[in-house]
Design brief:
Elements: H1 2-5, H2 19-32, H3 40-51, H4 56-66, H5 70-79, E1 91-96, H6 99-103, H7 106-117, E2 130-135, E3 147-149, E4 152-154, H8 159-168
Parallel strand pairs: 1-2
Antiparallel strand pairs: 1-3, 3-4
Helix pairs in contact: 2-3, 2-4, 4-5, 7-8
Length: about 170
């Protein structure tokens, strides 16, 4: 079925999610079954809260439960940047790389983070604590460089400040 949706078959253990997790996933799907495609976004959001991400196995379960194609689910998951197809860190650091932030040093800031953390944007530290992402805009261009650590926004950042932020966070 992965070839139907465009997603790659995952090499994950069979017990990737607990029976309790699968039960919660099924309850979310059941609560939205009548609306099908119209409720896909809320289903994805709720299920990602349970699982932490949306692997192909979960996408297929959602597709079957809502009676929509796996390719539709995959297309939505991969279109929106806040849906994840692989495990994420316990914390997420998003650095704005819009034109304004780039001009004010986001490239250097990200380079500092790559050096300090040993990962590139889109990757998670080996200990699973932090995922680093770059995003196109955080809506605070007048306070560039801007970054978010989980739900907290930080403004006018320098490479040194973001390095301290990671150590504290």
């Amino acid at each position: 079925m992965p070839e139907e949706c465009g997603c790659k078959e995952e090499k994950l253990p069979a017990d990737e999610f607990s029976p309790e997790d699968w039960k919660k996933i099924d309850e979310v799907i059941e609560a939205h079954r009548e609306k099908g495609l119209d409720d896909l976004l809320p289903v994805l959001h709720e299920v990602q809260k349970i699982c932490g991400y949306l692997p192909a196995s979960v996408q297929r379960r959602i597709a079957a439960g809502l009676d929509i194609s796996p390719s539709t689910v995959y297309g939505v998951v991969t279109f929106y940047t806040l849906y994840y197809t692989k495990p994420q860190g316990k914390k997420c650091l998003r650095v704005c790389d819009s034109v304004t932030c780039y001009d004010r040093g986001s490239k250097e800031l990200v380079a500092e983070l790559e050096n300090k953390l040993g990962i590139k944007p889109g990757e998670t530290t080996k200990d699973g604590q932090l995922t680093l992402e770059t995003v196109s805009c955080l809506g605070a261009c007048d306070k560039a460089v801007v970054a978010m650590l989980d739900d907290e926004t930080y403004y006018n950042l320098t490479a040194e400040q973001v390095s301290e932020l990671v150590e504290e966070g």
